[in-house]
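Journal club side-thread
Mid-discussion, someone asked how the predicted structure for our own chain would compare to the paper's figures. Pasting it here so we can look after the session.
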Amino acid sequence: MCDPRVVLRVLSLLGLCFVVLIGGVSPAFADKVGAFVRDDPASQMAHLDLASLPDRGEAKTSAYIRYWVEARGAASEALTVDTLPIDSPGWRTLKAPYLNAGFRTEIYWLALPLQNTSKRPVSFILDVGYGLLDSLELTLIHEETGAQQRFTAGDKRPYTERSVDYPNFAFPLQLEPQATYQVYLRVDTTSSMQVPVNLWDPVQFAEVRYKEALFFGVLIGMILIMAVYNLFLFVALRDLSYLYFSFCLTGYVLVEMVLSSTAFAYLWPESVIWNDHALVVSSNLALAGLAMFAIQFLNMRAAAPRGWRLLMIQCAFCVVLALLAFTLPYQRMIMLTAVNVVAVPMTGYIIGIILWKRGFIAARYFSIAFTCFVGSSTIFVLSKFGILPRNFFTEYSIHVGAVSVVALLSFALADRVNREKVEKESAQQSAIENLEKYRLLYENSLEGMFRIDEKGRVLAVNPAFAKTMGVNSEEELLAQVSSLDGLVPADSQAKATIRKELETQGHLFGYEVQCRRLDGSEFWAALFARVLRHPATREFFVEGSLVDITEKKMNEEQLHFLARHDPLTRLLNRTEMERRLKRAIAQAHEGKARHVFLFLDLDQFKVVNDTCGHRAGDELLRQLAHLFQRHLRSRDALARLGGDEFAILFEHCRVDNAVEIAEALRQEVTEYRFCWNEKVFRVGASIGIVAITPESKSMDEVLSQADIACYAAKDAGRNQVVVHTEAREDLSKRQNDMELVVILREAIRDNRLCLHFQRIFPCGESRDGGERLEVLVRLSHEGGIMMPGSFLPVAERYNLIVELDCWVVEHCLAWLEANPERTLQMAQININLSGQTISNADAMGRLLKLLDRNSGVADKVCFEITEHAAITNMTETSHFVRTLRSRGIRFSLDDFGSGFSSYSHLKHLPVTSLKIDGSFVRDINTDPFDLAMVKSITDIAHTMGLAVVAEFVENQAILDTLNQLGIDFVQGYHLHQPEPLV
């Protein structure tokens, strides 16, 4: 199969080849006109004896004609019949039937010797059978007397000036008896130099030309009728193919009339200028119509985009040539037009062949038609360029090709109509089948389908709709109601909304609305509808469907309720309470109202959970929630925030009234007895109260203040009511602690904690060949550094110390991994752990994962735990220490001696060293008790094989004393100031 790209490139070069042909080949070939004529400068041509002209017949003249080529612009430009060099060797005789020199710029002289040997005068018609010659001058000279008859003609002269009313050029000549004549014919034209000369008997000439005119008239009439017919088809079917084909046929009719000079004779006999350019204009417009027809008929834009672009370019070129016909030289324009006559059909022909091979059925007649036209037009054009001789075949090939194209393209259009008919019948059959499928779907659909008119009257419903409305069939539904008014939808307001939507949008999609069944019960439905127009009556109706979504709506309402309420107590949840609290604060800022927020935390609730389980705890919460509701107004909001925490928002309430209600709640909770499995429990309530005023900044602030007040109530002995005020110092301190909690939590999250270290030095004879460090944590805040004493107690109190310890361990291990050279020289790095971390199972799991991930440096780590933390949770501490010792971790007991604990506990803790509390070391030189305590701890530790570390070494005197006591390691500001671990 041909590559379309190659074919299109060949076609693109075709026009260039023809231009070269115009500029070079044709003139060069015409210079070698000897292929058609023979030089015979010496001979004198015999005279054509008109006495031998058969009655009512035709005489061929080619054997008697000589011609002379007069160069335009030379000295011979002024040649006339009288100055013509009759005996010059430049005269030539024809070998072809007619002179056909192609497109030339020279002037041609033809000489024809005649004689009448009869004894009577002879009349005849000299016929030049090509009507597109600009100027002809014929001179008949009597050789004996020198008498002359002159005739002029040409399509540059008005048609009415012709001697014979004939579309081509005919000259009436009369020869006297027994006389000889010379006929000289001067031809000047910018068209193709074709001069077919024949002599006719006048009667025979009239009969033959009449038959020719009748033939061309019938041909043109038939084509014109087809053009009108296709125009009517376009008006009826609105198919552009018929319009373009009609346009092309009309253009071709005009071309035929111009070529045969019929147009000059009958349409514009006085308009010489238009006649001169009519062929260029009509030919190019006809070709443009042909190109557009090919594009439309073959659907090239989709089927052959490159071919579409090429034909569009050629179409545009044809239109441009038609527009430039009156401005550019005629000869150049007619030559370009001749190129188009071949190029446009050739392009359509090749594209049609390609599409035919691709299986595009519509291209078959199209390709066959263009096969004829391409061949005939090529022969015709080659004849006009003088490459082929002029004869009946070359002159009439274009007419035969055109008739073939018209007929075959008509067959192509008819074939397409037939195929469209078959496709339409097939589509109708498919539509019938689909309609049957739709009927089955309609009747068996689970969706309720309906059709109503503009007034709501029921036109049709399917079984599913009838069942949705509470009946079994369409007939039963229609027997009870004629309209869906009041049923779909149930209320008038929804009906008005639906009507407006249908009027403005024309459709409705998934509109959720309440509907009513025939028994009066209501249900939710999703409604789908659209407005349609009946194809026959043109009346509007509504077609739609509905789906019962009652269960879906109930689920949505449940989800909506759960999104705002606590599933256990059915009270508001934290999210809804926060939303209402924000609204109350906004109202307070606007000065519209004052509100009070109450935070309630149950006391001793954990006892119920731990003793009887969570089921008992849940039941207690439900009963207390019911108890709380009895004390509230309808406008107040009660919520369970989580666990055993509740909140109440008193709207438009004074603080003293809220305190009274809070005291009543506290008292009732205190007196309440909860029974479960024959056990009786009593709980209390610690309550914090905050006034919502224009000074309240935000919801977070109000919640924080209420939480602080509640904790103050617990600190005061529990089961108390505390009102938050700025004047209370304990609340102010707790407020500061809460703010520090937020800062510390953000610092852990954003890595704003930083690590420092203090060196631990060997004392006396102790040497173990490595560097020892203690890691210290600091908090970077507002451009400064906060010391541990400012935030560690708060971290322990508010359960942040575990996160902080894990952060320190993670970043310390990462530092050891990132500094392998220093780690290699290091003997031990000490990290402090809190008592909460030791007793937290999750914390131990996290630490084990960190140590496993950094196993290469884990043997350098020594965790310091305080004596108090170790002794308080002895069992958990022992398990923690033994588990991590199995991973190679060392432990040191920090602040030893501060708790005055028994030395016997040391036997149960597998630690490697003790760190004496700094309070004993600081005054060792001034307090004998401290000296004795340090000596005692050191001796016992050494007896147990433990190393001893003394901290708070602040001067040389303390260091000397520690040396004397045999302390193993020392640290303090006298030896090293802490510095960042980088």
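Post-session note: The CA atoms of residues 306 and 558 lie 63 Å apart.
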